[in-house]
């Protein structure tokens, strides 16, 4: 099999936010969850629900359901590179969402190809564990993520345990500590251009969930009511892919703060997806969110 020509993609515009007037093309580079609640499959649902055309690159395969991860297989990095190069050589991609990468070699390969193609609107969800608690990232990949992938990242979306690992500190356990963690995370990203941190506070107790959005200058506190449900499998994947789907649109909408607008819209959509998750009946563990809650209507019961 011949490799695609090595030339920049039509969408190349660096990692800063870029706009699109039509339907944006968005790619997820992540793992596959056979239950469909997380990873590439959940990302593709999210893209579709929010009006983006979804593409997918498989960085890892998992044996997984709503209760546990029983196995992980990482394809050869040469084939991963070929997937990325073949896609970017043909499709103008307006945003890239990065999810589960598995190990340091995969992380380095993805970072290298994103740099080559000058990928725009790179949203990094630094996935380290499944909702069940099973590990999805080798410890050796953390340093590689900071060293090679952070320079390609426009917006990073860690939860509190992930923030603690990335910062090599105890995870924040108050909103006040979240402020300092968001500042430290922003310092890990390039300081010479626009980059963002969305620090998710869902692990803190209370009836309200507070996320923080920070660009190195302005800290935005984003509160939301906590929804009492077990159906939270893939919430992090879905939020980050929602932001990726919306960034190209808000950048072209002439709004005052396009990144903040994309994040607010993504969070509002996710709240609905969680609230309507009970309409689904998928598995006996942590069920998925309802990605198409605004599009699907429950069918009437047969008489």
Please tell me about this protein's structure.
By secondary structure, the chain is of the alpha/beta class. It has helices at 39-49, 77-88, 104-117, 140-149, 160-167, 175-188, 235-251, 258-275, and strands spanning 25-32, 53-64, 69-73, 95-98, 122-124, 155-156, 196-199, 208-214, 219-225. The chain has one domain (25-279): UDP-N-acetylmuramoyl-L-alanine:D-glutamate ligase, CATH 3.40.1190. It contains eight helices and nine strands. Strands 3-2-1-4-5-6-7-8-9 form a nine-stranded mixed beta sheet, sandwiched between helices. Strand 7 (196-199) and strand 8 (208-214) form a beta hairpin. Helix 7 (235-251) packs antiparallel against helix 8. The termini are far apart. Residues 1-14 have low confidence and may be disordered. InterPro entries: HMP/HMP-P_kinase_dom (IPR004399), PM/HMP-P_kinase-1 (IPR013749), Ribokinase-like (IPR029056).
In brief:
The chain is built from eight helices and nine strands. By secondary structure, it is an alpha/beta fold. Strand 7 and strand 8 form a beta hairpin.
Question: Which keywords apply here?
Answer:
alpha/beta; 34% helix; disordered N terminus; nine-stranded mixed sheet; 303 residues
